[in-house]
Design goal:
It is built from 12 helices and 11 strands. The protein is α/β, with parallel strands linked by helices. It has 2 domains: about 150 residues, no CATH class; about 120 residues, Roll (CBS-domain). The protein is elongated and about 80 Å long.
Length: about 350
């Protein structure tokens, strides 16, 4: 994600913060100085937001769904899951894990507030939904509110995914997505409208919900249409292949003529894989005539001509390459075409037409 920065990882899942989150923390610290209670409260809250998103990620992993990373935004976190299976049973379980975790953490903190020594605000004061000055009680309230907010039946909230899963039990997945997204857009507009009179923060949240519902619907509908387009329908003629003992400078010249940066490597008629432009860039221009292509790391990636273009799209995104060699199932060592980012764009245009 552009403008996001990695701060670590948990159980192999990268954790990133978006630049807007850093700006939020700077804004809060500036306007709460010298009393930094609100800054500390928000910082601790986002620790619990990470726990919320981790629960989604761990349940997704349980169902063999790859999790790319977790990104923290000013209004919460997002778990980037590579593939959400069109299974209502799996979707609602992945979605509901986050709110249940937040509710559980909130209740544990509430219990801690009751048993820890020292003065505590009365429980009824939490009903005002404002900070009390007691960090344990405030974090308890915020976790419960976080869980409840995420259960709103609106994309991209967890409740929207639960709603889609329930609808998908009785209708097509794309129809369920459209209905859930329309409800999400209506709720987003309602939240933003209420925010005009009460709190500008609600306006931002409403806009986020509206845009998230719109993008989710379009992405799902387009992906559904992409699944029906075969690789051979949008692939380009095979790019030139290069032998592994060729100098990198000569290999680049051949590929540039074919208008590609990544390089197909073939030996004795058998495809070895792809050398990516990122690997090429490690060498200065004057060094490239001294390096053999076979000395560089080679990605062993292919897609079958009869597969869905959606599979090629996943490979491009996962491997961070600009092209994927296309092979036939009965001859997987021979390149018959190439899928590029332009192929995906063409397929998406076709998908929009089909949808």
């Amino acid at each position: 994600m552009k403008f996001s920065y990695r701060i670590g990882s948990i159980w192999g899942i990268p954790i990133e913060v978006h630049m807007t989150f850093l700006l939020l923390m700077a804004f809060v610290s500036l306007f709460s100085f010298p009393h930094l209670y609100n800054f500390e409260l928000i910082l601790l809250l986002f620790v619990f937001v990470v726990a919320h998103e981790l629960s989604h990620s761990l349940v997704a992993r349980h169902y063999k769904i790859k999790v790319r990373k977790i990104i923290l935004y000013p209004i919460g976190g997002v778990s980037e899951i590579e593939e959400v299976q069109e299974s209502p049973r799996i979707e609602w379980r992945v979605a509901v894990a986050g709110p249940l975790t937040s509710f559980g953490l909130g209740l544990l903190l509430l219990a801690a507030a009751l048993v820890l020594p020292g003065p505590r605000p009365p429980l009824y004061s939490l009903l005002s939904l404002t900070t009390t000055g007691d960090i344990v009680s405030d974090l308890a309230l915020m976790n419960i509110v976080l869980g409840a907010f995420n259960l709103l039946p609106a994309f991209p909230m967890d409740g929207g995914r639960v709603l889609r899963a329930l609808l998908a039990e009785r209708r097509k997945f794309t129809d369920a997505t459209r209905t859930a997204a329309n409800i999400g857009r209506l709720l987003g507009m309602l939240i933003a409208f209420i925010g005009i009179f009460y709190d500008f923060w609600l306006v931002l949240i409403g806009m986020f919900v509206y845009m998230g519902a719109t993008e989710e619907a379009q992405a799902t509908i387009t992906s559904d249409a992409l699944a029906g387009i075969r690789v051979r329908d949008v692939m380009y003629p095979a790019a030139g292949v290069v032998q592994p003992d060729v100098k990198l400078s000569d290999a680049l010249e051949s590929m540039f003529k074919a208008r590609y940066h990544d390089i197909f490597v073939e030996k004795d008629g058998f495809l070895l894989g792809v050398v990516t432009w990122d690997e090429v860039k490690r060498f200065k221009p004057e060094e490239r005539s001294l390096v053999r292509l076979g000395d560089l790391p080679i990605k062993q990636i292919t897609v079958f001509a009869d597969e869905s273009i959606l599979e090629a799209y996943k490979i491009l995104a996962r491997e961070k390459v600009s092209l994927v060699p296309v092979v036939e199932r009965d001859l997987p060592s021979k390149v018959v075409g190439v899928v590029t980012t332009e192929s995906i764009a063409y397929a998406q245009e076709k998908a929009r037409y089909l949808s």
